[in-house]
Structures are given as structure tokens and as C-alpha cells.
Amino acid sequence: MTPLAKLLEAALFASARPITTEELAALSPHESPAALAAAIDELREHYDVEGHGVELQEIAGGWQILTRAEYTEAIERAQLAARPQRLSAAALETLAIIAYRQPISRAEIEEIRGVAIGGVLKSLHERGLIDVVGRGEGLGRPLMYGTTPVFLEHFALRHLEELPRADELAIALRAPVPASLSE
Amino acid sequence: MTPLAKLLEAALFASARPITTEELAALSPHESPAALAAAIDELREHYDVEGHGVELQEIAGGWQILTRAEYTEAIERAQLAARPQRLSAAALETLAIIAYRQPISRAEIEEIRGVAIGGVLKSLHERGLIDVVGRGEGLGRPLMYGTTPVFLEHFALRHLEELPRADELAIALRAPVPASLSE
Amino acid sequence: MTVYTPVDTATSFAVELPQFSGPLDLLLSLIRDEQVDIYDIPIARIAEQFVERIRTLALNEAAEYLEMAARLLRIKAQLLLPTGQQEPWEDPRAELVRRLLEYQQMREVVDLLERRGEERRSHFARAYLPAQPAPVQAPLALSLVELLAAVDRVLRAVSRPDMHDVVPRALDVPGAIEIIRVMLALRARALLSDMIAASREPWQVLSMLLGLLELAKLGELRVEQPRPFGNVEITSAAPAPVPVPAPVVRDTASEAA
User: Fold this and answer.
1) Which residues of chain B have a CB within 8 Å of the CB of C146?
2) A contact chains, 3+ CB pairs < 8 A
3) Is A150 in the B-facing interface, judged by CB distances under 8 Å?
């Protein structure tokens, strides 16, 4: 491996979270962006071609080394690491709404879900998946919520735009009865 | 690399602590101790011969993959350079409330901000900007927070009274505002 | 002293059932099971089945499901009203259809997130982070102007005459009355605590109380408290069938004929 690829590997190994491209660039300020991109490619290919137990993934605007999926079961069985808990259905619904409608208030989320969301917002906030991004207009100036980089990490998304656009979903909101739906 | 070496690499990467040889054996119970020792050697040699940014070390009776010493300095330097630490909006507002209302309890801050402040107090405390200055009266005798000398130093204030009074704020804020605030 | 505790109420308040995450979910599943066109929902049939399902699933004590039942019955009633031939007529189902589609779209995103989350869960991140000897902190980028701007934000957020956020919602007494009627039609007798879920907003609780008083005044129900601090019992006062659910049955009969 080239010295730059080795440096990147050392930095990525030292972090539990993705490292952004800017942060990687700061490791060796004299290198051109092209050299950096080449070194990232080199490292990724090395892991894939040489057959390593880990792989390089592009997540949340940066890069992260993760173990390969095929070893997860054995590692968990040997109790050397545990998978994080799944999010509840209520938490996933709330996240889905926030991801597409941010910034959005609690009342608006409840309106779409059709149920009171109780402690879900608090626990999503505690897990760092959402954050208060401002206050809405209007009476009461409600807190407005949005997703965080941790949200992208949790779902291994490169960026929010990786989610399909609303009109690309199978059930795009069409207006087949335009007169009645155009309120 | 052999499948066993890859499994070892994944497990060592995923584990929060060094792993003993016995624990590694639990990963793949059918393998003989000799095969296991060979896989450990294989992984160590791979890192050394191929020239990786990390190395396999035996520490405290267990195995661990560690960043090579020659890269740690560059990584630390880059982390500082890439992340000139800024306070989040939540932290700023909490600090503002403490500055003007000290001594003040966590519950009182949360009431003013309208949201739980979670880890914000902790990070302000770690930054040395606030400290516990006593205990309040009343139920549970809550911890009371106030600003520190570091806080004053940071803003080059001689004493707290140099902060504009709340009713002078409008004037203070009319002073030319740096670009960072015009979002 | 023995304190009266309505144990049965606490346990019977089954709000969340694993297979349905809310009234919209239940409604969508009915629409799928019946294979009806979401843009042309046979409201009478679906409303009847909705009421039936929440009864069998013991969801008929959850206010959210009752609200939906009341909404469906209201739409059905509106559809039965004679409409002027010439006037532009807004389909009373339109808002419901919009909400159902919006909900369905969100469910699609949930499936996507679930897949992605599961994929990510099958990889481990680096967990061993060697303790750094006295972590060096980056210099703090923070100016006095930023601090003062934060003070200003806080002041603007709290400087309304009273420190509490004004609840921006008006009371909805007619809505509460409909829920109470549906509930009494389903159960004939109910406890106040059933009608007021713990997580309800104050305006909803108030609406419910005012609705109860209003109906008591009209003689539609009786409100009793058997012992001091005991749970308030609400019983239907009308020996005749309560008006709201009756049309469901009649209407279904005519639909089936």
C-alpha cells in the first residue's frame, strides 16, 4: 500500500464513526484531492481483493471501516460484540416522517401517523438520531425536528439524497380526483 | 488471507477490548489450537509485510489491532485541525442562560429552553466553561451551575458585569454581526 | 386504608397492538383485505368493518381508534346527504384518502429504512478506542457576539407575557361528543379513565370533560362516581339504541341487498 493509504487506514481504524473526506484530507494537507481519492480507492480495493475481514464503506459524507456481514454471527455468538437494538416500529415511522418532512413539528408528525407519539421523540433525540433544528412559526412556536449525521450512520446512508425522492416512491402522492384533493 | 484469519480480523476489529486466545478459540470451535495460532501469525505477518497502517499486538494477555505509532501524531494533529470545535446552538443557549441566571439548576434551564438539555451540561463542564457552584434549596437539593473563570477568559471579560444587561442586548446585537451569524 | 384502584382499567387499556401501529394502519389493512379502490372507498362497508375490528381486537378503548370510527361515520353521513346537482361537490372522503396515501407512502419509507438498518446492523464498527492520555481539546471557536445572539434567541423564545407555551389548539367539544357517543354505543358503560388516555393533550382532556357534561345535560348519559376519589363511571342513559352506530347496521343491510 502507498504511504497515504496506510495513513488513511490508521486513521479510519482509530475511529468508531465515519471520517469525513475533509477530515481525511487534513491528515495530509499537501496531497491533492485526486491523490486522496486514489488512496481511498486503493484501500477499499485492497480490502476486497486481498480478502480481509473488514471493508471500507462510504457513509454519512465520509468513510468508515466495518466488519464484513459474513462474520457477524460468529462474533456475536462468541460474545465479542453485540448488535445494537432494532428501532421500534413507532420510532421508524417517526424517523421516516422526519427524514422526508424536516423541519417538522411534533403535532405535524402526529397528524401524519394518526397517533400520539408519546416518548418516541425523546428517545430518538437521546440516541442522537434527531435534533431540534429550530422553532416553527405561529402560535406556541413549536420545536422543529430534523435528522442528524447519526441518522445517516444508523442506516448506512451516504447522504439524505440517497433516500428516494417522494415522487419516486411506489405510492407517490397523486391527485386522481384533482378537484377534491386540491385544498 | 485464510477464512480463519479474516474472521479473527473482524472479531478483533469489533471488540471493545483485547481478546484472549481462549476467546478467539470460541469464534471457531472446530479449529485446533495450532490452526488458531497459525491464523494469528498470518494476520500479524499480513499487516507487517503488506505494509498496513495498523498492526497486531499482544497486550494485557490478549490480542488487539492498533494503529501504528508513526501515524498517531498525524491523526491527532488532523483531528484538531479538521475540527475547530464550535458549540452547538443548544450548548450556546444553555451557556447563555447560565451566564445570565447563575446559580441555576438543570431543571430551571430546561424549563426556559423548553427541551431536555441532555449531554449539553456535561460538555460545557468538560470544556471548563461552567461548574457546579452549590446546591439549591428545595426538593432533591439540585446541583446549581455557574460560569467559570475560563468562561470570562474566553470572552476576555474581567467580570460578569461586563456582559450587557438583558435590556441592552438589542443595542449590543446591532453592532456589526460577523458572517457566521447571518444564517 | 385501602385505596380503590381500578386495576381492570389499567390492564384493559390496550392501545398498541403489535400488528397495527395506528388507526390509519388498520384502515389500510381493511382496504387491502377488501380489495377496494382507495380512491373510491365504500365508506359504509369499511366503517362497519372498522368498528367491528376495533371491537374484536379490543382497541375500542383507544381514543385514536374511536376518533377514526367517528370520522368514518361522519363521512358516511355526509355521503348520505342529498347534494345539489349543479354545485361543485367536494367528496367528503377526499381528506381521508389524502391522509391514507400519505401514511402509505410513509410506510414505504419505513420498509426501506428497516432494510437499510438491518443491513447496517450486520456490520460492526470499530469498538476499541485506546484511551487517549488527557485528550487534547481543540481551541473553542466561540465569539461574544455568538453568545449574545444565543441570549437573544432565548429571550425571544421565552419573552411572551407568560412563560408557558400557549396551547395553540381550540377545544374540540363536538369531536369529543362523537367519540363519547361511539364509545357508549360500543360499550354502554365506560370509565372516565378509559376516555382520557394518559398521553392526551390538555385540550383533548378538557374537550372530553366538556363533552361529557354537555351529553349529561342533554340526558344522553349518566355520570357517576361510586366512591370519593373513585373512577367516574359513565353509563348510557338512553334505553333506545344510541343514534350513531345504528345506521351502520341498516346501511349494511341495504348494501348487501
Assistant:
1) 87, 92, 180-181
2) B, C
3) no
C128-144: buried (b, 16+ CB within 10 Å) or exposed (e) per residue?
beeeeeeeeeeeeebee
Residue C39 with chain A: CB contacts under 8 Å: 176-177
C126 and B CB contact within 8 Å = yes
The lowest-confidence range among B100-114, B164-178, C134-148 is B164-178
CA dihedral (B154, B156, B162, B165) positive or negative = negative
β-pair partners for A66: A55, C125
pLDDT of residue C111: 92
Please enumerate in sequence order all residues whose Cβ is within 8 A of that of C96, keeping only pairs 6 or more positions apart, or say none: C41, C71, C72, C75
* Assigned C-alpha cell, A3: 504511504
> CB of C97 within 8 A of CB of C41?
yes
Q: In which element (H, E) is residue A51 found?
A: none
The per-residue pLDDT for B36 is 93
What are the start-end ranges of the H helices in chain A? 3-13, 21-27, 33-50, 72-77, 89-101, 106-113, 120-126, 149-154, 178-181
> Is residue A73 within 8 angstroms of chain B, CB to CB?
no
A130-135/A19-20 β-pairing: unpaired
pLDDT tens digits, residue range B128-170? 899 999 998 877 889 999 999 888 887 778 888 888 776 666 5
Work out the burial of residue C154: count CB atoms within 10 Å of its CB; fewer than 13 is exposed, 13-18 middle, 19 or more buried.
Answer: buried
Length of chain C: 257
Is C13 near chain A, with CB under 8 Å?
no
Cα A165 from Cα A80, distance rounded (Å): 39
pTM: 0.65
Helix, strand, coil distribution of chain A in percent, nearest 5: 50, 15, 35
Q: In this complex, do B13 and A67 lie within 8 Å of one another by their Cβ atoms?
A: yes
Query: How many angstroms separate the CA atoms of A163 and A154, rounded?
Result: 13
Q: Nearest chain C Cα to A12, which residue?
A: C126
> At residue A137, what is the residue type?
E
- Residue A32, C-alpha cell as written in the block: 491533492
Q: Which three cell numbers stand for residue C196?
A: 382520557
Q: What is the mean pLDDT of chain C?
A: 73
Q: With bands split at pLDDT 50, 70 and 90, how would you rate the model's confidence at C222? A: confident
Beta bridge partners of A147: A130
Q: Is the ipTM of this complex over 0.85?
A: no
Cα C102 from Cα C186, distance rounded (Å): 29
Residue A113 C-alpha cell reads as 401517523
